[in-house]
Amino acid sequence: xxxxxxxxxxxxxxxxxxxxxxxxxxxxxxxxxxxxxxxxxxxxxxxxxxxxxxxxxxxxxxxxxxxxxxxxxxxxxxxxxxxxxxxxxxxxxxxxxxxxxxxxxxxxxxxxxx
Length: 114
What we know:
Elements: E1 5-8, H1 13-16, H2 19-25, E2 28-34, H3 39-54, E3 60-65, H4 70-75, E4 83-88, E5 91-97, H5 102-110
Parallel strand pairs: 1-3, 2-3
Antiparallel strand pairs: 2-4, 4-5
């Protein structure tokens, strides 16, 4: 994982997604639920790297490996990967499932970025 993308786990998830953190900072997070064995996830990874840089200051990009982190995966009812969630104030504002192009991902994010 790069310095531009947060690595979320079951253990550190609440550090980023608690009422005190999100209400105070009003962050918009893009979370990629992925797995090592998922080829579409691997194809999406470099696109997310570019998005993390291009949208710096507007969103925070994060990844969560579903195989290593079953608690958060279950909390958000993730059934297919890659699944991308846009979360603001601990509320899902949008979901996309499956591989998409960089332009499709930018369009998706721009709908929700102020």
